[in-house]
Amino acid sequence: MNANLFFMDYKNQLVLTGEINDVGSAIMTNVDKSYRTGMELSAGIKFNDNLKWDMNATFSKNKIKNFTQYVDNWDTWGQDVNNLNETDLAFSPNIIANSIIKYNIKNRFSIKLISNYVDKQYIDNTANNERKLDAYFINNINIDYKFKTKLVKEINLSLMIKNIFNQEYETNAWVYQYTYENEHRVMDGYFPQAGINFLAGLTLKF
User: Fold this and answer.
1) What is the mean pLDDT of the chain?
2) Contact 105, 98 (CB under 8 A)
């Protein structure tokens, strides 16, 4: 088992705004004062020579101390200023957890259940629940089989079954806010991930 505590105090941290430019690249900006603090945990259990379980998790708090939001105003060709005090940093989930359960037979056959949990995360720095990615929990299965022949030193066949429960989720998004005709408006887009999908592989060693 292992535990690690961390605290990072930032001056002018470069952070994502949630916006993208005209070619789709993420826009970043500096914030005056911000911090990240939390705990990292990891553990492994070996039940026997064949069965092992490894896991890790991070619990964190990721904040901008005094966030000032600038919103384009299409009516005045200027910007509206909103002081929001302490807010959450964009794309910074408070909880991330991973688990790998591995069953192995004589170093020839192995099967893994790989699980990943990501807590909700905001897509801009306003900590507004209308602009966030929902938490998601994804499970994958990985199967490997190794054997030898007279011609090939080692042959490795692998199959990855991803998102085995066909979970619907998004891992990224963008947002743009503006004022037009005295009305606050939002344009945004989300990036959905694939449902259940498969990846097969063949590796030859000579």
Assistant:
1) 95
2) no
Number of H helices, E strands in the chain: 0, 15
Q: Where are the domains of the chain?
A: 2-205
Residue type, 160: M
- DSSP, collapsed to helix, strand or coil, labels residue 102 as strand
Q: 137 forms bridges with which residues in the sheet?
A: 117
Q: What is the pLDDT of residues 104-163, one digit of tens each?
A: 998 899 999 999 999 999 999 999 999 999 999 999 999 999 999 988 999 999 999 999
Q: What are 37's two structure tokens? A: 């603090």
CB 153 within 8 A of CB 205: yes
Lowest mean pLDDT among 68-72, 100-104, 189-193: 68-72
What ranges in the chain are assigned the alpha helix state H? Answer: none
User: Around Cβ 174, how many Cβ atoms within 10 Å?
Assistant: 19
Q: What are 53's two structure tokens?
A: 């379980």
The secondary structure of 111-138, three-state, reads: EEEEEEEECCEECCCCCCCCCEECCEEE
Q: In 3D, which of 118, 129, 58, 57 has the Cα closest to residue 87? A: 129
Phi and psi at 105, nearest 5°, equal -125, 110
> Which tokens sit at 65?
């101390």
Return the CATH class of domain 2-205.
Answer: mainly beta
